[in-house]
Design brief:
5-stranded parallel sheet, binds cobalamin, 226 residues, metal-binding, single chain, Rossmann fold, Methyltransferase, Methionine Synthase (B12-binding Domains), Chain A, domain 1, metal ion binding, alpha/beta
Length: 226
């Protein structure tokens, strides 16, 4: 969803560029008082992070400013998880396995996806960063997870996801276990979803629960037909 920046987004952007972590957190807290922290992640912070990402690509953001942006996102994620809208209810669906593919350390997007899935009632086994392809499969088999969600931010790391698909095929698990893929590179190159053998993608954490609902349905349709 393309979103133009409001004055609140602009203010948050200014605070992040000034490396004012306390000021940025205070603004987010005020906003979340009214709308909740999961909404603060998707509606307030994410458009600003996207703008920072674009400026980063144009070399207009320093590593230090990028670092502060990451810390503020982590602060908000922690609050979203701790708040009633993020974690109050016990999980009602799952488990599902999620992680960043091998050699990928862009944790922010994955953490947001995990937060939104948990808020929507999914039991998520979060494997963290730098997860080898075989580890996704081993953990899915061990926990009887029916969806594997793989995050990748770089072209070179995204291509490794193909090995997850090949291993699912080799073990006869394709269909029964659905493969969700996502991350900035899939937005830039939508054809990559098919190239790596993904069953579906979502371009934001907000859209991830709907994707997982659909893949969960497909995984169970396949089992019922078998
Ligand atoms: C922040 C950042 C970093 C931080 C990461 C901090 C962290 N803890 O995550 C640091 C500084 C560590 C970093 C390092 C590097 N980075 Co970097 N980084 C970025 C940056 C600026 C933003 C990424 C981000 O966090 N976006 C915000 C999040 C919220 O959005 P998102 O990731 O897209 O996630 C959303 C969706 O995609 C979706 N989603 C994500 N995962 C999944 C998974 C599933 C299953 C689903 C359904 C959905 C989904 O939901 C998320 C939330 O809404 C991007 C630029 C950009 N425009 O993306 C470059 C970028 C990704 N990095 C890049 C590079 C090259 C690197 C380095 C190699 C740089 C270097 N020379 O050292 C290293 C590699 C580290 C590694 N091995 O992983 C390149 C990749 C180029 C490419 N296409 O291959 C980019 C595009 C910058 C650029 N233009 O060159 N980086």
């Amino acid at each position: 969803m393309e979103q133009s920046l409001t004055s609140e987004h602009e203010e948050l952007l200014r605070l992040i560029v000034d490396a004012d972590r306390d000021g940025a957190n205070a603004l987010i807290d005020r906003w979340a008082d009214e709308h909740g922290y999961t909404n603060a992640l998707s509606d307030l912070l994410e458009p600003v992070l996207r703008e920072i990402g674009d400026r980063w690509g144009r070399d207009e953001i320093s590593l230090a400013q990028g670092f502060v942006a990451g810390k503020i996102a982590e602060d908000t994620l922690t609050k979203a998880l701790a708040s009633a809208d993020g974690s109050g209810r016990p999980p009602v669906r799952g488990p599902v396995v999620v992680g960043n593919i091998e050699d990928d350390f862009h944790s922010l997007g994955r953490k947001m996806v995990v937060t939104f899935l948990r808020a929507a009632g999914w039991q998520v086994i979060d494997l963290g960063n730098d997860v080898p392809p075989h580890e996704f499969i081993a953990r899915a088999v061990e926990s009887d997870a029916r969806i594997i969600g793989v995050s990748a931010m770089m072209l070179v790391t995204a291509r490794t996801i193909r090995q997850v698909r090949d291993e699912l095929d080799r073990l006869g698990l394709s269909g029964r276990v659905q493969l969700a893929v996502g991350g900035a590179v899939f937005k830039l190159r939508p054809e990559l979803v098919a190239e790596v053998g993904g069953d579906g993608t979502a371009d934001s954490a907000l859209a991830a629960p709907t994707l997982f609902d659909e893949l969960w349905r497909r995984a169970h349709d396949r089992s019922d037909a078998a």
